[in-house]
Specification:
Rossmann fold; SIR2/SIRT2 'Small Domain'; six-stranded parallel sheet; binds adenosine-5-diphosphoribose; 242 residues
Length: 242
């Protein structure tokens, strides 16, 4: 039997059960801010103190949250799949480090809160220590007074796109978890996988914009539904459960 290739894309919904707020609440605001003010290069140009404070609060919040059953189930699923000779790729739009802390290798297409990047020399550093919302962190490499969040803002190019597109072309099974299907290019991955002949599995609390009748649809909370959905997917591939 040829190996299967499973590609999983996660979004804010998988971290919601760990207590991290999703992006699009009822008022269309992100933690009370307009997306244009805190998640665009223009917003940073206009008011770097506001943007810095916003991300420093998100960085500090990481210390208070833990991976949940859905993050752990994905990490265990990857280990079983790879042990059986199949390929597994995990891509996340989330900027938290909950997949990493659950033990997954993950491509962060929208960047990572635990990293900062020099806006002048582009040196990237991992920094979990400096979370003071009122104080910028200087660059140790070039002494520029201000690092920026290592986050992909609107109008910027997501990271790892070549690797993600390669995985998308190869995948035999595509799984989307906790993403509203509103933000591109991630929103297009489900339809591309489907068109390439992959079986498609979708888990979320609300029906995403890009859901189709051909998808295996698992509505509900990620921590309840992801472990059972992955068990069903493992069975359909013929991977031992333990
Ligand atoms: N379990 C599963 N799904 C959930 C849960 C939960 N407990 N709570 C919410 N959801 C679902 C919602 O139904 C929604 O479909 O998670 C999705 C969250 O959607 P968004 O907030 O739009 O998050 P996401 O799709 O990850 O956003 C994509 O947009 O703002 C940018 O860069 C940011 O990476 C982000 C991107």
């Amino acid at each position: 039997m040829p190996p299967h290739h499973v590609l999983v894309l996660t979004g804010a919904g998988i971290s919601a059960d760990s207590g991290v707020r999703t992006f699009r609440d009822a008022g269309g605001l992100w933690e009370g801010h307009r997306v244009e003010d805190v998640a665009t290069p223009d917003g940073w140009e206009r008011d770097p103190r506001l943007v810095w404070r916003f991300y420093q609060e998100r960085r500090a919040q990481l210390r208070t949250v833990q991976p949940n059953a859905a993050h752990h189930a994905l990490a265990a699923f990857a280990r079983r799949l790879e042990a059986a000779g199949h390929e597994f790729v995990l891509v996340t739009q989330n900027v938290d480090d909950l997949h990493d802390r659950a033990g997954s290798d993950v491509l962060h297409m929208h960047g990572e809160l635990v990293k900062l990047r020099c806006e002048r020399c582009e040196t990237v550093v991992e920094d979990r220590v400096h979370v003071d919302p009122g104080r910028f962190v200087p660059c140790a490499a070039c002494e520029h007074p201000r690092l920026r969040p290592h986050i992909v803002w609107f109008h910027e190019m997501p990271f790892h796109m070549a690797e993600i597109e390669r995985a998308l072309r190869r995948c035999t099974h595509f799984v989307a978890i906790g993403t509203s299907g509103k933000v591109w290019p991630a929103a297009g991955m489900l339809a591309t996988a489907r068109a390439n002949g992959a079986t498609t599995w979708v888990q979320s609390l609300d029906e995403p914009d890009n859901l189709d009748g051909r998808d295996h649809w698992h509505p509900g909370r990620a921590m309840d539904c992801v472990p059972t959905m992955l068990a069903a997917l493992a069975r359909s591939i013929g991977v031992p459960q333990q």
